[in-house]
Amino acid sequence: MIKFFRKIRQRLFMENRFTKYLLYALGEIILVVIGILIALQINNWNEHRKELQKELVIAKELYNELQQNLIVTTKHQQNIEKINQEVLFLLNISNDSLKSLTNKELNEHIFKSSKITSYRPINQKLKRILGIESFGFSHSKTLLNELQDYNNSIDDITAMNLSAVEVFRNMMVPFLGENLSLKNLMHEMYPNKITKSDNYVDVGPIIKSMAFENLYADLFASYTSYIFTLERTIELTKNLITHIEKAYPSVIPTK
Asked: Which one of 51, 65, 91, 125 has the minimum C-beta count within 10 Å?
């Protein structure tokens, strides 16, 4: 093809048809420029297609991770809710109710009120994406900001969980150890593993003490705030899942 155009140029030049030669040369330059522009456009299109494919993979990974963390966070919220219900029960127990409950039943309520568990969010992919400064979602202008809000909420839960664990270790265990028989407390829950202690303690008066009341009032306030943050995070998670489904419909598993 190049030889063909070269022969045409030579023939026009040899025939002294200079004007036509200039026009032809100009046309050839234009064709070359158009070819370069087309090649650049194709290259840009290929790069854009690769970026969209990468973005779709990331959206799919985030979508799956959000689904998994929704389960983890919901189960944790239900667990904290149960603990707080036990805390509230012991905090509001009346003298008449106290008389109708045995030491075993009271120990069971106290044990259930102290069963704090660790919160281990599934957010590795989220952290990785938020750590990429230049990354953005072309199908949504607000998704990245919403993911940051969600990440902040996850961090708040993690901090609250650590605080609750510290309260259990540094406040509840020392208080219960000083005023109750921890062995009897554990015996009521695991009678086949832990024998009953010879140190009998009447639990009722301890529950009605000012120290117990203040401790459990503080626990109730903390857990109520904890549950609110968990519920907010669950709502954020559901909204993000819906957002990704609308922006990237292909992430939805086919039945």
From this structure: 51
Residue 140 banded pLDDT, cuts 50, 70, 90 = confident
Expressed in percent and rounded to 5, the helix, strand and coil fractions of the chain are: 80, 0, 20
The DSSP secondary structure of 190-254, one letter per residue, reads -TTTSPPPS----HHHHHTSHHHHHHHHHHHHHHHHHHHHHHHHHHHHHHHHHHHHHH-GGGSPP
Are the C-beta atoms of residues 38 and 29 closer than 8 Å to each other? no
For residues 18 and 108, give the distance between their C-alpha atoms in angstroms, rounded to a whole number.
106
- How far does the chain reach from its first CA to its final CA, in angstroms? 54
What is the percent of the chain where pLDDT is above 70?
79
Please answer whether residues 233 and 66 qualify as being in contact, where contact means their C-beta atoms are separated by less than 8 angstroms. Answer: no
pLDDT of the residue at 12:
47
Sign of CA dihedral 92, 206, 185, 215: positive
Q: What is the pLDDT of residue 180?
A: 86
Tokens of 106: 């009271």
What gap in Å lies between CA 115 and CA 197, rounded to an integer?
21
Matching residue, tokens 């290929």: 46
Could you give the angle at which helices 103-113 and 18-92 cross, rounded to 10 degrees?
160
Query: Which pair of structure tokens corresponds to residue 238?
Result: 């559901």
Mean per-residue pLDDT for 122-142?
A: 82
Contact present, 24 and 9 (Cβ < 8 Å): yes
Please state whether the predicted TM-score (pTM) of the whole model is above 0.70: yes
pLDDT tens, residue by residue, 33-43:
676 766 666 65
- 161-171 in b/e form (b: 16+ CB < 10 A) is beebeebeeee
Q: Above 60 in pLDDT, residue 23? A: no
